[in-house]
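User: Run a structure prediction on this.
Assistant: Running it now.
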Amino acid sequence: MRSDNQGNCRKEDLLLYAVTDRSWLNGESLYDQVEKALKGGVTFVQLREKNLDEEAFLEEAKEIKKLCAQYRVPFVINDNVGIAAQIGADGVHVGQSDMEAGDVRRKLGLDKIIGVSAQTVEQALKAQEHGADYLGVGAVFPTGSKADAVEVSHETVKEICKAVDIPVIAIGGITADNVTELAGTGICGIAVISAIFAQKDIEAAAQTLKLRTEETI
């Protein structure tokens, strides 16, 4: 465990956090799309698979883990603690309805990154208390990527950032056009799905988003 209050991940690694989605593959492999995002400057990758069978998910996770290691970018799995443990991923991200952070920590070990989704100050403080390394807060804008997304006001994001000592990233409906509206909230980065993977030029989209985020934070 790091001794500088940054947990197991650095704030700068959370600047541009890409969450995968195979909705926009259009004949490409997810591997190729993730590589384009990494070339564009993505600083963190979360593999999110809701409909892939376990065996295919496992093989894909192994390959993308290797890819992220080449770019020296942290790689976490969404929700699936078993696969994260099996392939030695850098960590896992869990939602409020998934396994609690303390239980995840016991399964994965002290040196793994644990991210937790939060929508309220209470949830954020609880996640921090149970060992989360960072929080994903949102949805900060309307989003179509998650059917059950709860909208979180920018004021609440600000309150969460003030209440906790761990890094906070914003998620939900963020684009290159609206990211500047998050200035002053206290976040250290943004997590995006369609703003990278739904774009025709993934590498260029990531470059633009990274620049705008650096200007915002």
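The chain has eight helices and eight strands.
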